[in-house]
């Protein structure tokens, strides 16, 4: 057993495990210090674009948030209307003398919502975003899935025994929306495959229903399609592909903001003002710095105690 500065005794195996674990946590905090500072710098130094004139690629947009096609979501724990939600359910568990909150369920919405500024609108695909919501609620109850946001009283908790803790975060309609991500315009003939590719797709689609293909093109009734018939099939497929291409090319432009495909580029969503978001990121970096110092001191002290044993 090793005396750790007169505070407690540990065998060498447990001392190595604890020292190594706190060292790993210190490395995580070190990464988080610089990651949050980098995000704050990007938020502060990226110029805000307007939807109508935004370049394709990484951009920053600021506007108001609205439901996509006028269909808001319902928050799963409170039932409140929203545009985006994230929730967590924890259960209070007792094991002998120990008790703790254990996460038993969590979820996040993936439905797109709309950002509007003075020049136009852009759909936000929130999947994979680093989201910083302003609205956050935490409360307790005695049901796994609460029917409302009302917290039951102490008597109810004592009667039913089980305790649950709920956390719900929301974006709501008409709040400010800050978005930093990959901007892409779809429709208007963009990103259409070549006519030859669309023709081949039509032929494969028709061949999947071979009886219907025979009924349409086998005028001789032989039950087979020879080369001359296949020539007519390809001509008809080319006409169909050209018609589909004209329809797709006539669709209106639709702007999207989503997670960048390139690693290292941030995807941030927030209903804070830009300056508030930057301060929040810097506070998180400061907290990570404190965690780094504590874990480094603990890990270093434990390794030193092991070396001096």
Automatic annotation (TrEMBL):
Keywords: Ligase, Membrane, Metal-binding, Transferase, Transmembrane, Transmembrane helix, Ubl conjugation pathway, Zinc, Zinc-finger
Cleavable signal peptide: none
Membrane topology of this protein: Multi-pass membrane protein
Keyword Kinase: no
InterPro entries membership: MUL1-like
GO CC, alphabetical: membrane
GO BP, sorted A to Z: protein ubiquitination
Subcellular locations according to the entry: Membrane
Catalytic activity, EC: 2.3.2.27
E3 Ubiquitin ligase MUL1-like domain location: 90-189
A single MF term (Gene Ontology): ubiquitin protein ligase activity
Transmembrane segments: 12-31, 287-306
Catalysed reactions, as listed in the record: S-ubiquitinyl-[E2 ubiquitin-conjugating enzyme]-L-cysteine + [acceptor protein]-L-lysine = [E2 ubiquitin-conjugating enzyme]-L-cysteine + N(6)-ubiquitinyl-[acceptor protein]-L-lysine
Keyword Glycoprotein tagged: no
Enzyme class: transferase
Protein name in UniProt: RING-type E3 ubiquitin transferase
Record organism: Halopseudomonas yangmingensis
């Amino acid at each position: 057993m090793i005396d750790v500065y007169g505070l407690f005794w540990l065998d060498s195996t447990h001392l190595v495990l604890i020292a190594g674990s706190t060292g790993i946590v210190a490395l995580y905090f070190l990464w988080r210090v610089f990651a949050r500072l980098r995000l704050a710098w990007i938020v502060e130094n990226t110029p805000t674009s307007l939807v109508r004139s935004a370049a394709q690629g990484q951009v920053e947009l600021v506007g108001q948030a609205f439901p996509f096609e006028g269909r808001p979501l319902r928050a799963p724990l409170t039932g409140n209307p929203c545009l985006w939600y994230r929730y967590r359910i924890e259960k209070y568990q007792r094991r002998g003398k120990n008790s703790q909150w254990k996460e038993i369920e969590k979820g996040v919405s993936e439905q797109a919502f709309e950002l509007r500024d003075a020049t136009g609108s852009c759909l936000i695909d929130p999947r994979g975003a680093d989201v910083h919501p302003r609205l956050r609620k935490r409360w307790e109850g005695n049901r796994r899935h609460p029917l409302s946001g009302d917290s039951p009283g102490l008597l109810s908790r004592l009667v039913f025994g089980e305790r649950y803790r709920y956390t719900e975060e929301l974006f709501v309609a008409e709040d400010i929306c800050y978005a930093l991500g990959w901007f892409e315009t779809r429709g208007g003939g963009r990103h259409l495959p070549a006519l030859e590719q669309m023709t081949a797709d039509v032929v494969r689609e028709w061949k999947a229903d071979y009886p219907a293909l025979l009924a349409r093109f086998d005028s001789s009734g032989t039950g087979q399609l020879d080369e001359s018939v296949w020539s007519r099939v390809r001509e008809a497929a080319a006409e169909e592909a050209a018609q589909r291409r004209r329809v797709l090319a006539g669709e209106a432009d639709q702007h999207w903001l989503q997670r960048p495909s390139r690693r290292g580029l941030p995807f941030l969503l927030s209903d804070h003002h830009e300056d508030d978001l930057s301060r929040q990121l810097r506070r998180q970096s400061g907290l990570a710095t404190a965690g780094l110092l504590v874990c480094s001191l603990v890990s270093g002290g434990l390794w030193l105690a092991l070396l001096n044993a």
